[in-house]
Please model this.
Amino acid sequence: MSESMSDRVAEAMAHLKATEEAAARAREELNTASATALSADRSVRLTVGAKGELTSLEFLDGKYRSMAASQLSASVLEAVNVARAEMARRVVDTLDPLTRMTSQGMAPEGTGVDWGSIFGSLLRETSVETRPTAMSRLRDEIHEDEEDPAGSAGADARRG
Model:
């Protein structure tokens, strides 16, 4: 009925070996992982590494030459956040199975990794969805402010 101590130790050792192998595969995958994003206005393409570090930045088709500094800045920030969010999702997808020891009864309930506390709003805020995000709203506001300086007086009158 009950397992012998040697059977339980052998089972734990097999579980440990499988976990170590999975961790090594995950480490190898993440060492070479990157995510590339293109800004919505297609003026900026950039790549981030597994830790979210910027590894490549390209200004496409000379569009930056005709952009206001704030527009270019918004495009860069948008693309950075999209790429970092994609990389964060890949990190979670890669590492989450390794942190789920509770399913094997190896750790007390509730001891898994809280990815939200690690990545904060990055996963939610820049996820690819149809609803506007803070970054897209910022980009839209910047574009609106710079489109028609003469029309801003009318906009101020409507606000006031």
About this structure: The longest strand covers residues 44-49. Helices lie at 5-31, 69-99, 115-119, 122-125, 134-147, 152-159.
